[in-house]
Structure formats: C-alpha cells, structure tokens
Amino acid sequence: MIAVIHPSVIKGMIPAPASKSMMQRACALALLHTGETVISNPGASQDDLAAISIIQQLGATVSSKNGQLNIHSTGMINPSGKVDCGESGLSFRMFSAIAALSREEVVINGMGSLMERPMHFLKEVFPLLGVQCSLNNGYLPAIIHGPMVPTDIRIDGSQSSQYLTGLLFAMAKAAKKQVTITVDNLVSKPYINMSLSMLSLFGYEVHHEDHRIFTINPATQRKETIEVNIEGDWSNAAFLLVAGLLAGPLTITGLDPHSAQADKAILNVLKSCRATIENKHSGYTVVCPQPLKPFQFDATDSPDLFPPLVALAAHCTGVSVIKGISRLAGKESDRAQTLKKVFEGMGISIHLKGDDMHITGGMIQAAKVDSHHDHRIAMAAAIAALSAKGPVEIDHAEAVNKSYPSFYSDLQMLGASVSLFN
Description:
Layout: E1 2-5, E2 12-15, H1 20-32, E3 35-40, H2 46-57, E4 61-65, E5 68-73, E6 82-84, H3 89-99, E7 105-109, H4 120-125, E8 132-136, E9 139-145, E10 153-156, H5 161-174, E11 179-184, H6 189-201, E12 206-209, E13 213-216, E14 225-229, H7 234-247, E15 250-253, H8 266-272, E16 276-280, E17 283-287, E18 296-298, H9 306-313, E19 319-323, H10 335-345, E20 349-353, E21 356-360, E22 367-370, H11 375-385, E23 392-395, H12 407-413, E24 418-421
Parallel strand pairs: 2-15, 3-14, 6-7, 10-11, 18-19, 22-23
Antiparallel strand pairs: 1-23, 1-24, 3-5, 4-5, 7-9, 8-9, 11-13, 12-13, 15-17, 16-17, 19-21, 20-21
Helix pairs in contact: 1-2, 1-3, 1-6, 3-5, 5-6, 7-9, 7-11, 9-10, 9-11
C-alpha cells in the first residue's frame, strides 16, 4: 500500500491506542493463570492478535463480549505442536520460555523480519534450565523441548529485556522453591518494571535488587478471576504528541502519567524543546513554540522513541543528538540506517557517530520514501510530512498494522489530508 501525506493542519481529541506491550504480557499471564482473565480495552494490532493466537495454540480459550476479552485457561501448557509468532519479537521471546514449560516438543516459528533476528540467547540459557533447544543456524524456527526446571541462573541482559520477561513469567509459574536470576548489563529496565507490575497483578511474588538480582518465590493461590485494563500506549502516543506539536493543536487521551512504560519519556524531550504540555483531565495537549529548540536524549532504555524523535528533531533549529543506536539493529529494519535513508530522502541531514545519531533540523521536502516494512518508520515519515513543503509518498505504508492499524484513518479524522492506494 502507498500512503500520500499532504501538508495539513490537524485538530481535535483522540484516545491513545492500547499498549501492545501491556496487552501481550496480559495474554501471556492469562495463559499461565488457572481460571478466567478479563481484559478491558484490548489491543487489535497485528502483534496483539499474534499473542491472542499464540495462547490459543498453547491451550487457552478466548472469547469477546462487550468490547472485552475473556480468556479461560487451565494454567497448563497444552501445545498443538507448532506456534506462530507472526512478526512479534516480544511474543517470541516471552512465549518461547513459556512453551518450554511443556513436556512436549514445540516448534516456534514466525514471519517477515522476525526470521532475520538472531536467537542465540535461547541456545545459551535454555540448557541451564533443562530445556533442549535447536535453531536454524541461530535463527527461527526454534524447536523447544522442556519441561523447564527453574534454578538459579545468570544471564546477559544487553540484547533485549524481553528474554528476561519470558524467563520471569515461566519461572514464576513453575518455581517450587525460591530461585534467582542474576542479570548483567540489563537494558530497557522500565519494560521490566511493567513485567513485574503485571506479575504482581496476577498474584506472583517477584522482587529485584537494583534490576540485577531477581528473586522469584513459589506461586501461591491466586484469585480465580483476574481483571486487567490495558492502558494507553506511550510508544504510539509519542507519534501523536509530535504530530500535535508540528501540526496541531491535538489532545491525546487515555495515557497514564504514572505508567511504567519507558516511552513516557517523550514528555521530557518535548519539554526540553520548549514545548508547553497541558495535562488536563481530558488528556495531554502540546503547544508548539517557535522555534523548536534542539535536544539531546539517551534512548537506550526507550529505543522505540527513535523514529518519532527523529521526526521531531527534523523540525528543531540546530542539531539534536539521540543516543542508543546500538539498540536499533534488531528491530523490524536496521532502524538507524533506515531512518537516515528515509529522512535524508526528505531533505534532512543525519549523521551516525558511534552510538549517537545527529539530526540537523531543516525543512521537510516533498519526497517518495519507503517504510522498509517497519511500522515506526512509516509513522515517523507520515507525521513529519504534515509540515512538509509538499506531499510525501510512503511505500509499504501498511506496515503500521503491526502496532497501530487505525493510524491513517485517525490522521484523516483529525483533519490530515491522507490518500491511500493499493
């Protein structure tokens, strides 16, 4: 699909999409829960649908009523033999550990960019827990044969915190005695905080010391019915907040100011650009100053903010610096290189220096760009285009379905001129 975004003024109020990070975690824990889980405000992105499909493949039953999801599970992993994670890296990293609780062999596969992401972590860690694991030269498909035997282990957390989330969930379910996971070089700690908060909601007792030593206590009796309300997604809301700053005014509702989501840090960046943020009962409204001040931000713990921040930096007067390029290589595309190519195609100068990205603000030009099948690249190009000198054409624009299926229709509802072509 091709999306053509014309320079536009947008205005109105819009709810933030449901957090897919929280939604996928809720699905995983609902599978492990013995009883019913009721999920309010469930997400409908491709990643969310992948998580729902996975828990069904692993034995849960799922129904929908009055806008809620009702998940029933025996708490046991009953795999159908094969599990398809789509393109969801979080789902793969969580459910590979959860599938390892089963005594049966499970084949875990995916599609698209997920097939190109190295999975060596599993080969290194699973044998320590009594789990057999084979990969295709370090890549999917993965053949996993448990059952996992929780024990004290030490892991490297520098590649992704999502592996730790999977281990915490699986070991919390299976632990018969207190066990610990010692983690070196952990990245994305806010996402681990979200995982710990979700574990607590489902009745598990997991503690940590400085995000380095995680202590898991044996599971105790929990409530039969767990209720989860999926909060608004700060990752996708970051695009809306930047869009409101560049082409608004726009008010985004449904965001929790006390959220554990890492990408809530977008507010600090907007403030450093001298934007005025009004937080009223209805939501967040961003007021744009003129000119926007360049910023410096360390995105090591919130790498998903890179794309909207590049769109923001493109409109700042001067050079903005975003740290954390090393976190981008394992995304849907090599995101640092893709951002450089796409935004330079729109007339913005970007230099990559070590772990830093330097963006020189300027005028967005009319252009034809490619999302490289990366949902966040497509959205970044689209919001930048709202204040361009002419229309910006985005190829493979359908990539937004991975996390924000209604993105273009939401822009249209807010007044943006968006044309879609198959």
